[in-house]
Known about the structure:
The complex is a heterodimer. By secondary structure, chain A is mainly β. Chain A is 0% helix and 53% strand. Chain A has no helices and twelve strands. By secondary structure, chain B is mostly beta strands. Chain B has strands at residues 4-7, 10-13, 19-25, 31-38, 42-51, 54-57, 64-70, 73-78, 87-94, 108-109, 113-117. In chain B, a hairpin with a 2-residue loop joins β7 (64-70) and β8. The radius of gyration of chain B is 14 Å and the shape is globular. The termini of chain B are far apart. The A-B interface holds A 1, 4, 31, 33, 35, 43-45, 47, 50, 52, 54, 91, 93, 95-98, 100-108 and B 31, 33, 35, 40-45, 48, 50, 56, 58-59, 88, 90, 92, 94, 96-99, 102, 105-109, 111-112.
Amino acid sequence: AQTVTQSQPEMSVQEAETVTLSCTYDTSESDYYLFWYKQPPSRQMILVIRQEAYKQQNATENRFSVNFQKAAKSFSLKISDSQLGDAAMYFCAYRSNTNAGKSTFGDGTTLTVKP
Amino acid sequence: DAGITQSPRHKVTETGTPVTLRCHQTENHRYMYWYRQDPGHGLRLIHYSYGVKDTDKGEVSDGYSVSRSKTEDFLLTLESATSSQTSVYFCAISEGWGRVGSGANVLTFGAGSRLTVL
């Protein structure tokens, strides 16, 4: 079974600064997908960014980028130019390419953005 | 929004009573999932469906059952609710999985249903 670990229960960042959220995972599979989801106080789960394991290039979406290290099984999220609206809980997720694509989530990191 | 609704959004019930949560989608996606979210545990998979009448257990399925009689509806039932089932329940849908296009692999979530069992 796959496991996803987010070692930082809480993080804070100053507005306009950069912050990196950590995620590691354990799997014996070679083909899979990784995601970061954001959950603001509204509780809605929102996709932030996704990475295909077979692609070496790190994914980017505007101010959000990832550092995907497949050999180290690491998948960190970098948020640049942090904004007050980035404050939320962030979940790292692993999605298998077998077994009906079941997903495993980390326990989340709560990000606070200070004005 | 992606056309996924959960009902009810909030429910308070008593121990021992049956509860059914409904997930309805208008995307015609094949895969549907039920997760529960508890403090300190992230999201944990309860049950999932890979087609009409095709369902399987997730990692925390004890005390829950599901049914899917139509593509658009996926029901989660607690036959006899217990206080340990107090949680926020999320439904998610997916067009596919595997190398069928990265967009198909994305899970889209409903807004969640908060269940309190007294």
